[in-house]
Amino acid sequence: MDKRNRLALAYLLAGISAAGRALLAVPENTQLQELSLTVLAVVGYLLLCRNTVLPFVCGAVQLVLELILCGSQTGGVWTWLMPALRVADLWLLLLTVVLMLRQAGQPGRVMPAVAAVPLAVYTVAHFLPRAVMVAAVSFVVFSVVLLWYAVLMIRAYNAARVKK
User: How many domains, the chain?
Assistant: First the structure.
């Protein structure tokens, strides 16, 4: 790969990060893994700052949320906010997906709409104590849809690599 092709590298890092997050496929006790994958994605978003800064901003906010979530496991002040922070983190991830697809020239993709459905179910079920199983299943479905996004980013990587 041409190391000067920032666009291709950004798409590759976003794709790898999405694939890693998708393979976690569990909503709880994955904060540290999500944090490291988000750092990888933020590096990719940073490479796009010449073209657009919005993915980087969303990624940075995700990073802050995930740092708070990592600290909350030890009983910090944010413990009572963990469910809301987890949901906000995932919606920011979806917003970043939309922004990255738009950046890659694929704005009309069905993938974000498909991902929003299980994420909406997860958002509601995550706050209902009796719907733990529904939340877990919807999170797994959301994770599988993230694999679709990873494939789209790898395709964008290949297109950008060939174009240069």
Answer: 1
